Amino acid sequence: MNWPAGWDVRHVAETGSTNTDLIEAVLAGTARNRTVLTAGHQVAGRGRLDRRWEAPAGANRLVPIVVAPIPAVRAEATHRIAVAAVAATRRFVGPDRAALVG
User: Fold this and answer.
1) Cα torsion at 97, 63, 8, 74 (round to 10°)?
2) Which of 8, 57, 72, 83 is disulfide-compatible with 41, CB 3.0–4.6 A?
3) Per-residue pLDDT, 23
């Protein structure tokens, strides 16, 4: 698939934690702003407030994204990513099913 310029989208079938993997890649200098890591399944995921994240294999699309530099208002990054996710999902499912998204 061709991704928009400036995006680095990576996929692994299974991992311990997508967040941990992406943080380690940033620290190693192998991931930068707009790097995305998707996984079909993670076995040791953590969510907000370090809560354990569990889901059956194939049940979710796990997608952490590197945002750098961090905006002064951190919620701005979350808002922009949420709006982009809804727009991309609408485009993917098509106009007939777009009303079901967002």
Assistant:
1) 100
2) 57
3) 92
- Six token digits for residue 80: 């922009």
Given this model, what pLDDT does residue 95 score? Answer: 66
Token pair belonging to 98: 């777009």
Furthest-apart CA pair in the chain: how many Å?
Answer: 44
> Containing H/E element for 12?
strand 8-15
Residue 43 and residue 62: Cα distance in Å, rounded?
A: 12
Q: Of the candidates 88, 97, 14, which has an alpha carbon nearest to the alpha carbon of residue 80?
A: 88
| Prediction pTM value | 0.71
Residue 21 belongs to what H/E stretch? helix 18-28
